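We treat protein structure as text, and this decision shapes the records that our systems exchange. Such a record has a labelled line for the sequence and another for the backbone structure tokens. The record that follows is passed on verbatim for readers who wish to inspect the format:
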Amino acid sequence: MKNFKTIQNLEFEIELDPKSADLKKKGDFFRDQGQFANAVFEYNKAIRINPNFSNAIFNRAICQQEQKNLKMRSLIIKGQYS
């Protein structure tokens, strides 16, 4: 329940005044939930506001790699990759 309140509060704060740090926190929330596509989306928004936001850039790269890893594991399980 704590995470639900946290994400709701973040969404409210972002709606009032979008800041790159808040968008990164939202991306972090999605990353921690394994929702890598949503995390990348939020990191992209943070990077648009602050193109030099190295933490958001780094975390986006990690999530993109995780997405590739998940796709590869899925192919291996299905026997489509050897």
In short: The mean pLDDT is 86. The domain at 2-78 is CATH 1.25.40.10 (Serine Threonine Protein Phosphatase 5, Tetratricopeptide repeat). The first helix runs from residue 2 to 16.
